[in-house]
Automatic annotation (TrEMBL):
It is found in: Cell membrane. Residues 66-93 form a coiled coil. One of its GO terms (biological process) is cell division. Pfam families: DivIC. This is Cell division protein FtsL.
């Protein structure tokens, strides 16, 4: 038994490190959470989003300007077609009214006497 008693004295127990009193009084700081994005990345992302927003605004503004110009062009085209139709109608009226027989008839009704004269139509000036 003596051997067992000796062995029990020689068994080394793990030595626990002794803490200083200073270590006991310092509060533990909470672990620092790593942010998803760094400050530089945030600035870059915000600038990118602002640039995209400004570009989208310009595209929408340009698109609305083009759309209003297209409507104006279509309106002018329809007015042009209407004026051309009126011009064709008026040109046909001029051709009808400039008939030499009609002019002679009106002249005779107003007392013009034409004796053996040839009536010629003057060419129109361009």
């Amino acid at each position: 038994m003596a051997l067992e008693e000796v062995r029990s004295y020689h068994v080394q127990e793990p030595v626990q490190p002794t803490r200083r009193q200073d270590d006991q009084h310092t509060p533990q700081q909470p672990p620092v959470k790593k942010p998803w994005f760094t400050k530089g990345e945030k600035v870059i992302y915000i600038c990118g989003i602002l640039i995209i927003a400004v570009m989208a605004t310009f595209v929408v503004n340009f698109s609305s300007s083009v759309d209003s110009l297209n409507r104006d062009v279509e309106q002018l085209d329809s007015q042009l077609t209407e004026v051309r139709t009126q011009n064709d109608s008026l040109h046909a009226d001029v051709q009808e009214l400039s008939n030499p027989n009609r002019i002679l008839t009106i002249a005779e009704e107003n007392g013009l006497n034409i004796r053996h004269a040839e009536v010629k139509q003057a060419s129109s000036m361009p």
